[in-house]
Amino acid sequence: MNRINWVDTLRGIAMLAILLFHTEVYYADTEIINYNFYVANMLTAFAFVSGYLFANPQQPFGYRKKLTGIVRSLIVPYFAFCTVLALGKSLMHSSGYTVGELLLHVLTGQASWYVSALIIAEIFTATAFVLTRQNKVLLAVTALLCIVFTAVCHNDGTAVACRIPDFWKWEEALLLVPFIILGHFYRLYEPRLQWLNTTAALIAMLAAVIALKYAALSAGCSLCIAPVTVSNYLLFAADMIVSALLLVNISRRFCLQLVTFIGQNSLIVYFLCGAIPFIVTYIFRRIGLHYNGNYFSILLAYVFVVDLTTISTYVISRYIYNPLLKRK
Q1: Can you say whether the dihedral through the CA atoms of 53, 68, 113, 318 is positive or negative?
Q2: Do 112 and 81 meet the contact criterion of CB atoms below 8 Å apart?
Q3: What pLDDT score does 159 carry?
Q4: Displacement of CA 249 from its chain's centroid (Å)
Q5: DSSP label at 98?
Q6: What is the pLDDT of residue 157?
Q7: What is the pLDDT of residue 234?
Q8: How far, in Å, CA of 126 to CA of 54, rounded?
Q9: How far apart are CA 313 and CA 8, in angstroms?
Q10: Do residues 205 and 250 lie in contact, with contact meaning Cβ atoms separated by under 8 Å?
Q11: CA 255 to chain centre
Q12: Please, what's the b/e burial string for 206-230 (b: 16 or more CB within 10 A of its CB; e: otherwise)?
């Protein structure tokens, strides 16, 4: 499949933002920039792009082919990367878990929550495509029901479904499904939505996102999706949708090689976004560079995190991941 520059750029922006968040958490032992400012936005925008690529409107949807693609591009890498990382954590004694406990986390989809949620969300969406025969109204209803079910589940702990263990992050997956479907709709109506990519739309959406963030923070709303602790679903939906469209607009305006490279290899980058900040933090602390409240030190650590992640991603993608993908 031919690469789409703005898709790779948006994915790259999202991964760079997630790397910043993890750098803060590891190096400063806490988030510094409020999670509600950007983290959930990047994760849902990534799901939106996954929806954009989910199905080709010019070709019949193949359920078996899609499931095979999910296994090949998400499930196999999940088990491969997470098993290696689990063994690495065990050898370094950095997790506090035994090898058996770490491998159990991998088997139950707990080792990399976003990838697990994305796997379930894509399987669910593919099934919905078949059951609804891609009827747009029914798909829209499906997206709405996912949000309603999640909201009810977390506002009423007596529901049976609410007491089901969150294996393979099915709760978070339900929140990603609407954005996958929205991404698909965006592709269907893309020729009619070109006005969303204008400068006027950029300014309007930026102002809307600022207003939505102000409203959420003023009301003390949580927009966290892992674990699901969304306190205002209407505000959450508006914020996530507008910010996703804003990121699409921005991503169509520039093409930086570093950003697109990270976007092209976003899955590898995501698997490394915990390990690399941990390694950089360990090295910095060993040489006496502790976080002292000055955000400049976070940015310095972040530069090293991005550099080391980029190098590691290049090596893994060129010599391990891509050669394996090319095998029949």
Answers
A1: negative
A2: yes
A3: 46
A4: 19
A5: -
A6: 47
A7: 94
A8: 9
A9: 15
A10: no
A11: 21
A12: eebbeebbeebeeeebebebbebeb
Please report which residue ranges of the chain form alpha helices under DSSP H. 5-27, 35-52, 63-70, 76-92, 99-107, 113-132, 136-155, 170-188, 199-218, 233-251, 257-264, 266-272, 275-286, 295-316, 322-326
Q: How far is CA 319 from the centre of its chain?
A: 25
Tokens of 262: 């990270």
For the segment 175-220, what is each residue's pLDDT rounded down to a tens digit? 999 999 999 999 999 999 999 999 999 999 999 999 999 999 999 9
pTM (2 decimals)? 0.94
DSSP state of 192: G
Contact 16, 306 (CB under 8 A): yes
Q: How high is the mean pLDDT in each 10-residue block of the chain (328 residues)?
A: 90 97 96 94 97 93 95 94 82 66 88 95 98 96 94 61 75 96 97 96 98 94 90 95 98 94 96 94 95 95 97 94 71
- Mapped onto helix, strand or coil, the DSSP state of residue 62 is coil
Q: Is the separation of the CB atoms in 247 and 45 below 8 Å?
A: yes
Q: How far is CA 96 from CA 92, 101, 144, 245, in A?
A: 10, 10, 40, 41
